[in-house]
Write a structure and sequence with these properties.
Layout: H1 3-34, H2 44-53, H3 65-83, H4 99-120, H5 124-155, H6 160-166, H7 169-193, H8 212-215, H9 221-246, H10 254-278, H11 287-306
């Protein structure tokens, strides 16, 4: 491996750590524009995380180490999942056959610890959000695995690095129906995993309607900073999975590919802001139908992929 390639791979690995919170800032700014407001600065998520890191944490007397471990393990699992994720056509730092299964289960482990931390508080509101998160997560994980399995079959590769390196506009010309269904599925999984509208409203303050936000009500200070940072990293991860399929940026130049990948992610953040400005949150009994529908699309895409 020569020096320029090593530098490009290091930069690609560093990008999510630095740029992930910017996606949240773009979403919030887009929603402010739709509402006719100036809105918070684009860098407001960074300010919030640094402010929380400087504060002290408050713990209830009923909590145990589980509450403290939840945010830490949540960020750690997302970071390991990001290590398996290629960007800009460059191989991931951690790549092996079947690594997409590990990514799905790492996301599941992070969710499991967040749910445990919510239950550890003994709060009825936190427990209510945890039960909803468990239900919706159980539906989203099969949809994600089916979508990634369809990509693996279409490309003939069984690692994420190989799958996304093999995707191109020629692949779209050959298997456009399957890839289109997979793209829609990954968008639905992204909205579900990141608790965005129409699954959840991240800006609501009504505990009876919240899912993710109600689970972290008892976190404060550095713990809540880790929760916010972990949410930004998960948004980046699911966004890369989606944009890597929808916009395969493989120009042969890793630096140009990185710029195209960043542009695609920022455009996705704008699209999420538009969705949240134009749609209302689904009723709770409609959310499982939405996620199950995404799983059905992924299953159909897999069947189409098996024919190729």
């Amino acid at each position: 491996m020569n020096g320029p390639e090593l530098l490009a791979r290091f930069t690609a690995a560093l990008l999510p750590l630095v740029c992930a919170p910017a996606l949240l800032g773009i979403i919030n700014r887009t929603k402010a524009v739709f509402a006719g407001r100036v809105g918070a600065p684009l860098l407001q998520p960074y300010y919030d995380i640094f402010k929380l890191l400087r504060k002290g944490a408050v713990y209830s007397g009923t909590t145990t180490w589980v509450l403290r471990a939840g945010p830490v393990i949540g960020v750690a699992t997302t970071l390991v999942a990001l290590a398996c994720l290629p960007l800009a056509g460059l191989p991931a730092p951690l790549s092996f056959a079947g690594d997409f299964i590990l990514v799905a289960y790492l996301l599941g482990l992070g969710r499991f610890m967040t749910i445990n931390a919510a239950l550890d508080t003994g709060s009825a509101f936190c427990g209510m959000g945890a039960s909803r998160e468990a239900q919706f997560g159980a539906l989203a994980e099969p949809a994600l695995l089916l979508a990634l399995a369809g990509l693996a079959w279409l490309t003939g590769q069984w690692s994420l690095s190989g799958i996304y390196a093999a995707l191109s506009y020629e692949t779209w010309s050959v298997a456009a129906p399957a890839l289109g269904l997979i793209t829609v599925t990954l968008l639905a999984v992204l909205l579900t995993e990141n608790s965005r509208i129409p699954v959840d409203d991240p800006n609501t303050h009504l505990e009876l309607t919240m899912i993710h936000e109600v689970m972290v009500l008892d976190h404060s200070g550095p713990d809540f900073a880790l929760v916010e940072y972990g949410a930004a990293l998960k948004l980046w991860l699911t966004g890369v999975l989606l944009t890597g399929v929808a916009v395969p940026a493989l120009t042969g130049n890793p630096w140009v590919n990185m710029l195209l990948a960043l542009a695609a992610l920022f455009a996705l953040a704008v699209a999420i802001g538009c969705i949240e400005s134009m749609m209302a949150r689904l009723r709770l009994h409609k959310v499982p139908q939405f996620i199950a529908g995404a799983g059905a699309l992924a299953a159909m895409a897999l069947l189409l992929a098996l024919e190729h």
